[in-house]
Amino acid sequence: MPTAVTTENVGVAPSAVPRTRSLLAVLRAEGRLFLREPGSAFWVLLFPAALLTIIGLIPSMREVSEDLGGRRVVDIYLPVVILLAMITAGVQVMAPLLAGYRERGVLRRMSTTPVSPGVLLAAQMVINGVAMLVAAVLATVVGGVGFDVPMPQNPVGHVLVLLLSLACSLSLGAALSALARTTRAATTLGLLVYFPAMFTVGVWLPVQAMPDIFQSIVEFTPFGAASQAFDQASLGDWPSTGHLLVITVWTVLTTAVAVRFFRWE
Fold first, then answer.
1. Residue 149 scores a pLDDT above 60
2. Fewer CB in a 10 Å sphere around the end CB: N or C, the chain?
3. Which residues have a Cβ under 8 Å from the Cβ of 225 and sit 6 or more positions away?
4. What is the mean pLDDT of the segment spanning 143-162?
């Protein structure tokens, strides 16, 4: 699992610098810290594409299966690894990092400067959001070039699901960081969410191959619904309203939890 970067030097801008320039300064500093942490960079940016490569190199995973509607396992794993990157960034990277900043008093000290703690929170969301998008693009390129994984036949629906899932993962990370007072607590809560989420997106067993009862349960989870919505867009259909609604409701709920319980100190 990736380990959160721990530092109290967030590189804030001088008090005379406008808020927008302060945000850019924090973005640069936090971005450098993100890239300097090998665990975070690998598990968020590279691991999804690496996992897809491993799956694609297995001959049986490249065989057409009637149980999967005439598709290959490697074809339906592209959205799975994209969602895996989102879960990792939100739950295993952002949440422990923000909880660690609070635990060491970084957020409290920032509240006394012109650069508010909200700037740091916004910077973390931007950095992890961009990292998720980069991971999605990289996995898509690896799948298409390396294993002839077809591009989504409904690109507009695919992008919509991507953006909703990204928002949900960020709000979930913010909620976990709000509920956890220490880095250790955030990591523990993250693990309790991480492994069930991996199951719901189909890491161990594609959702399409699950028994009907499990599919019905998984569809009420945010990333299980996202996995199904991605699959619908891949086939050229518009993602079902029910799946989009499930993702949206979970995003609203986790955002409400983050707003209600998040404290700067």
1. yes
2. C
3. 218, 219, 242, 243, 244, 246, 247
4. 94
Classify residue 8: in a domain, yes or no: no
Contact of 84 with 201, CB cutoff 8 Å: yes
Give a yes or no: residue 24 inside a domain. Answer: yes
Burial 58-67 (b: 16+ CB within 10 A, else e): eeebbeebee
Assign 3-state DSSP to the chain and report helix, strand, coil percentages, each to 5. 75, 0, 25
- Please name the amino acid found at residue 13: A
Number of domains in the chain: 1
Tens-digit pLDDT profile for residues 88-138: 999 999 999 999 988 888 888 877 776 677 788 888 889 999 999 999 999
As a whole number of angstroms, the distance between CA 20 and CA 75 comes to 42
Q: Which two tokens stand for residue 32?
A: 């450098």
Q: What's the pLDDT score for residue 110?
A: 76
pTM: 0.86
CA 5, 6, 11, 15 torsion-angle sign: positive
The mean pLDDT value of the chain amounts to 87
In a domain, 123, yes or no: yes
